[in-house]
Model the fold of this input.
Amino acid sequence: MKINEIIKALEEFAPLTFQEPYDNSGLTVGNRDATAKGILCTVDVTEEVLDEAIQLGDNIIVSHHPILFHSLKSLTGITYNERIIIQAIKNDIALYACHTNIDNITGGVNQKICEKLGLIDNKILNPVEEKLFKLVTFVPEESVDKVRKTLFDAGAGHIGNYSSCSFNTSGIGTFKGGDNTNPYAGEKGKLHYEKEIRIETIIPDYKLREAIQQMILSHPYEEVAYDVYPLRNTFSQAGSGMIGNFRKPLLKKDFFELLKNCFTIPCIKYSGNLPEQFKKIAVCGGSGSFLIKDAIKAKADAFLTGDIKYHQFFDAEKKIMICDIGHYESEQFTKEIFYSFLTKKFSKFAVHLSQSVTNPIKYHF
Ligand SMILES: [Zn+2]
Done:
C-alpha cells in the first residue's frame, strides 16, 4: 500500500476543506508514492516520537499538530522542529498532520471530548458557513431514480440527521442537436420537447466535483444541463466547538472531579459563574477562547477549552463558567481518534499508538 492510500482515507474522514485558513494540515514531509510500512499516531511530533517510529519501523507519523506551521528559511538543525524534519527525511519517515480539519468535523476532537465526558445530544457550537452548494439537474422521467440515487450515493442530500433530501419538479425541457450529435430523444436538427424532472439537492464543497462527475456518467443525455449555486447556509455537520448535555445534572464537586479524571489535570483553572448544577457543557479542544461568546449565547453552564488568557477569563462575567483544561489535555485524545479510525480502515496494517506524552507543560505541587 502506498502512503497516498492512507492520506486519501484520512482526508475522506477529515476533509482538508475544513481546516482554518492559517493552518497547514496535510502531508508536510515525505513522498506520498512511497510504500507504507507502518503508521504511528501522536498528538505532536517530537524527537522522542520520531525515535518511537524508527524503533517500530513505522514510516508515516500522523499527528494532530503540524510540525511545519510557519515557513522555513533555513534547515540547519538549530531548532527542535528543524532537527525533526531533518531526521524524518534521513529516515524516510513521512509526516502527516490532521489539525483544524479534525477540530471542525463531527466525529473529531470535540465529539471525542463530549464522549469522554458522557455528554449526549452533541451539536456543533459554531457551524461553518459557505461550505454548501445547491446542485440542480434536469433528467428525463425514466432516468430520474437512477440519477437521484447516484447523487445521494456521492454525498448529496444530507441535512442534519436526514439523508436523501431533494426537491423534484416536473417540466418541459427543450433541445436541438447540432451536426455531430446523437440525441437521447428526437432527431438532430429538430427542436425537441422532453418531459423532464428538475432535481435539486444540497452538497458540501468537498464532495461536489466527484458528485458532478458521477451525475454526468449516470445521466442519459450527451450534454448534461446542471446548475451549481453557492449557498450562505450554515453546515451543521462541521464547525468549531461542540455543545451537549449530561444525562443527569452534576453537582459542582462531581463536575470538578469528572474534569480532573477525564483530562488528567491536577487542578481546575476557571472564572465566572458556578451554577448549582452543571447540565449543558460547551467544549473546544485546543485554543478555543474565540468561542466564549457562542458558548454564552448557547446558554452553556460551562465552557471547557485551553489557552485562555487573563483578560479572556473576565468575559465569563456572571453568565458562564469558563474553564481552562489545558491545550494538550483537551487534545490528548486526537491520537486515539487516528488510531481507531486507521485500525478499522486498514485492519491488517501496522498502526501504532505513540506512548509519548508530548505535553511540554508540567505541574508541580
Ligand atoms: Zn492544538
Summary: The mean pLDDT is 96. The first strand starts at residue 26 and ends at 29. Residues 65, 286, 327, 331 surround zinc ion (CB under 6 Å).
